[in-house]
Fold Formyltetrahydrofolate deformylase.
Amino acid sequence: MTVTQNAPAVRTHPGPTDDQAVLIVHGKDRTGIVAAISAVLGKHDANIVQLDQYSDNPHGGAFFQRTVFALDHLKARLPQVEADLKATLAEGFELEYTLRDMSAPKRVAIFASKDDHCLLDLLWRHRRGELPVNVAMVISNHADTADEVRFFGVPFFHVPSAGPDKSAAEEQHLRLLQGNVDFIVLARYMQILSAGFIERLGVPIINIHHSFLPAFIGAGPYAKAKQRGVKLIGATAHYVTEALDEGPIIEQDVIRVSHADTVADLQRRGADVERAVLSRAVRWHCEDRVVRHDNHTIVFAG
Amino acid sequence: MTVTQNAPAVRTHPGPTDDQAVLIVHGKDRTGIVAAISAVLGKHDANIVQLDQYSDNPHGGAFFQRTVFALDHLKARLPQVEADLKATLAEGFELEYTLRDMSAPKRVAIFASKDDHCLLDLLWRHRRGELPVNVAMVISNHADTADEVRFFGVPFFHVPSAGPDKSAAEEQHLRLLQGNVDFIVLARYMQILSAGFIERLGVPIINIHHSFLPAFIGAGPYAKAKQRGVKLIGATAHYVTEALDEGPIIEQDVIRVSHADTVADLQRRGADVERAVLSRAVRWHCEDRVVRHDNHTIVFAG
Amino acid sequence: MTVTQNAPAVRTHPGPTDDQAVLIVHGKDRTGIVAAISAVLGKHDANIVQLDQYSDNPHGGAFFQRTVFALDHLKARLPQVEADLKATLAEGFELEYTLRDMSAPKRVAIFASKDDHCLLDLLWRHRRGELPVNVAMVISNHADTADEVRFFGVPFFHVPSAGPDKSAAEEQHLRLLQGNVDFIVLARYMQILSAGFIERLGVPIINIHHSFLPAFIGAGPYAKAKQRGVKLIGATAHYVTEALDEGPIIEQDVIRVSHADTVADLQRRGADVERAVLSRAVRWHCEDRVVRHDNHTIVFAG
Amino acid sequence: MTVTQNAPAVRTHPGPTDDQAVLIVHGKDRTGIVAAISAVLGKHDANIVQLDQYSDNPHGGAFFQRTVFALDHLKARLPQVEADLKATLAEGFELEYTLRDMSAPKRVAIFASKDDHCLLDLLWRHRRGELPVNVAMVISNHADTADEVRFFGVPFFHVPSAGPDKSAAEEQHLRLLQGNVDFIVLARYMQILSAGFIERLGVPIINIHHSFLPAFIGAGPYAKAKQRGVKLIGATAHYVTEALDEGPIIEQDVIRVSHADTVADLQRRGADVERAVLSRAVRWHCEDRVVRHDNHTIVFAG
């Protein structure tokens, strides 16, 4: 057996994030963007800790930059950095940016139904310090996981779904969510969100779903995968858009299966991939590593 | 998002195991073993559901066979099947066998310390029906996980370790375990078991530990792995023998890491591999898929 | 650097296959099949080296068994073994079987076009002794790879494709192939085979094609995958049926890609997966490890 | 089968690298480095195509930056860019840099012995345009691969090894290599290079060797791995230093094996991992993606 005495407490965040900020810049590529940004940061004595930059086409394509920088007394000085950045990027660049103090974690609501594998994996990882996020609440259309969620110290709200008309439930959701969360995770939430709800909510929504090679459309995908004899079972985490299951992909993975796996085995193995893929996607979103562009993502996975 | 209405409850055991038994036969290879065994099963109208056979050398090597068979009214008829098998295998074969009614799950005690990732993963998989096992108890030298374990409906016993002399703690362990469990899982249990304890206990013990390419001996392996710049982090599940960390390997896996991962990141990713590898090893042990031979294993992973 | 002096020549076949035969039995499950088969083998003093058995449903499902056995003076005695097997399996079982002397490798024709990665990988593995197969010929609609193929000591036939009417080319193919090959591998062969050709040819055909999560239909799949930002690129090897790309899957795999990969990078990485997946599928087919059933396969991958 | 008409020729380099240069900067971290570098590039109207930056400790650690930039008429203007960079980095920074015109591939000599899997994989990939490198020569202590190497249009030199005194062979190596190559790849070269040779040669040397969990020291590692029943077989590519097999790791990977694999199977599977790992390491080295620091590497794998 492994014996490690006096092992230090695991702190899995990538180092102290106090006095660190993350800046995402995204837009039309042009000569001089990196220099302009780093000049602003240099002027404020900010030390660049990590910088990832990518252009999808050096001749007039799109520009993406993620910069983590350290700055003493960040909270006091960040507004001035931001004002300078804004002024600089306004000078002839066609760029958007987001700037965030990394000591202030994003706030998330997790939506779940009966299946608990993705939900619990996120709550465990959060409790272990693996996810730099503030879990504001769990919302479920089933009451089953209430005790378990509250055991983690997280508020649980039961909002039953009542037939095809989801407007009443969605009103309840909006009352709970608006102003309280920065993004939503659908952790095997088995209800469709209306386009109107997505729009009114106005924050990013991450979903996880199973994936197969080839694809199996409709109900009972695992039974179809069994019938077709696929050798891999996968999962895809993506941002939710109005086009069902068609939003920008954040992360994907697969595992190997065989003819000896029953439909239930495929579901069990699929569940393992789902929770692994979803937790990576959530982590990367929390750390501002994912930039959406057209219908795909740039992931500075680090 | 994915919508599957009226999805059936997941039952992840490989089909109904009522009226099914698993037979492991292991020993010196000889012509006619498969025929002799299947003749006995055929005589009792047992239907062979899955049969895996392996010889490590067709010319006088070792023979391994795992057979799952279905037999109506199994409980009533198994003793007679066993008697016939015993008589048959005694006729000139040098073979050992185990025969087990699959409807009676093995009983396990899980040993843990402060780190909870492997422990919780096992408890959660058990609750989902993924592990055909009876979790008799959790024993820990720390009290931290007591509430959580009991939340799963599993007895928790706190047996503190008191300095280098472990004999008092081991006596307590033996009182709790003897007669009550069929195997032990060390789920990141950070204490060494004495050779005497292992012998008196007399049941298989499964351990999980981290693994690296190359190996890093001694304290702080993750810090050493970081310093050496390894690109993979792994874990190994094995049976415990008197030779520390040298017992027969059941399962191994790795994940990819990079220079950007901190020591804490490596520990976090290592924890993911550990729980995945341990849960597979435990599952295979529960299903009698692992046969020990010399210092290695034959795994009919299915 | 690694230094191994006097390393023995690598012989990658799974041990000496002289005097070994492989038996595949496949059909309706019934009690007593394993016993009946092993009794026949036992009667002839055949030693079972490896036996894999699988039932897709213990209650009236399909039965699959692959058995490798050793028998001195196999060539002389195999006809009598076969006669006994045939008589036994005719007694009330609804089973098909194939029985093959493993010292006589199957004969293959490889079809290729301009892309050489799959073709060369197969030829090279064959030369190393990794593929127990007799490469009878390479047929290509382009002359580009002629020298290289012949360098491997393999006959090369150039059969150009001439527009939409493939009947003349297919007649040439049939003249070259009929009686000379046991199966065909399409190693990135960029022409459609007509249903009539497949039927007249009458031997199994293995194809490799790229696979994506989600699927991208039509021309330019890699460009579409890039646009969609997929994080995995895969390949699928399958038997060819009249339904284009819809035949039973033998093997699949994927590799991870990122936003930084260009379309050309995706093609390059896809090529790596393709050759790996195809070579595994071909190897398993050569070793009679793949059983077709309905539209899927049972792979006793060993 | 897959049919793609008029598929464009694969060009796997990451886009046109004419008029592109790659700059590596490495040394003591300090505020303002990124700004200083990008200001120089901006002054010359160079457009940054890709920038990866990493600090191993924001408080006084080491700084690493890889920058790819595009500049019209690069060949004419690069000397002036370099002069400006040199002057800038001399102002109070403790940094080293390398600057390279990406249209001028590095020159490599590949060393091989009898085993051809790594050698051929590199030659194939080079011919396909996957490796931006100039293969100047192959040197082998065996003549076996001469024809095959020359078939690729690459000069082949046979330098036999004659017993324990390697000085004569090493003199021959140096005469062939000095001035002609920028790095060396040991593609399963089964001779030890002396420390004196490594020093006199003065260019990076990349080696590939097998890796196991746990490690097996000495001769016959695959036989030992089989005996120990490992479930994974791996390979490690690293830079050669005077400490045998202990140099900075560039890349590692593993594949899964089972008890059913013979020693020969393990060697075959190991060979697949070796060639995959080595080709990635060589590619990354050719693209200046690997920075050595202490005894490890920073790999901007892209």
